[in-house]
Amino acid sequence: AQSVSQHNHHVILSEAASLELGCNYSYGGTVNLFWYVQYPGQHLQLLLKYFSGDPLVKGIKGFEAEFIKSKFSFNLRKPSVQWSDTAEYFCAVKRNTDKLIFGTGTRLQVFP
Amino acid sequence: DTAVSQTPKYLVTQMGNDKSIKCEQNLGHDTMYWYKQDSKKFLKIMFSYNNKELIINETVPNRFSPKSPDKAHLNLHINSLELGDSAVYFCASSQDTLQVLAGVYNEQFFGPGTRLTVL
To answer: What is the pLDDT of residues B23-52, one digit of tens each?
Structure first.
């Protein structure tokens, strides 16, 4: 079955620490890749997306992600997190006209 | 100028009741979705409509009936509510037609969510 895996379920960091959240998917072929963020009590917002071209994608708020096709991965990174980055992070994958499949989410807590 | 809006934001009701959640988008998108987010934050698609036509219908009890009166609206009606229906329901929209030609990346825009609590 098609799936999206986020292995880090809960990550706790101090401010200024570096962040990397893993995302792996099990589809073959061309995919569109997304990272969404859900701040406490809010709706999902798009952080960044990969459609084609440069596999290193820059998003909002200093986030970036790298698509590594050979590893079926799309890991999210940020060099220095802030307290305001505390949120739930969702990786999502879409293939052609298929539905968008979300990972199980990673809860990030950043302490000042 | 909210892009995707849902009403109500909170809904508390008794088991067995029938309720509706409304969704509207002003982005001119042609595809709309309903997602359910459970208590563990897991997001799962329920339905998808493209130009008022149902294109995705996941394994959802038939007590859930989506209705799309036009491209900008997708409402969710739930009959005979059960305790397990308690969740946050998110509406979303995207532009799926001619996406490549338009250079649109097919991202989905989400509404603020409706927290449904069934007592």
So the answer is: 999 999 888 999 999 988 889 999 888 888
Measured CB to CB, residues of chain A less than 8 Å from chain B are 32, 34, 36, 38, 42-46, 49, 51, 88, 90, 94, 97, 99-100, 102, 104-105, 107
Instruction: Strands of B26-85 (E only): list them.
Output: 31-37, 43-50, 53-57, 64-70, 73-78
Q: How far is CA A109 from the centre of its chain?
A: 15
Per-residue pLDDT tens digits for B74-97: 999 999 999 999 999 999 998 875
Identify any residues that bridge with B56 across adjacent strands, giving them in sequence order.
B48
Q: What angle do CA A76, A24, B44 make, to 5 degrees?
A: 95
| Nearest alpha carbon to residue A5 among A26, A19, A28 | A26
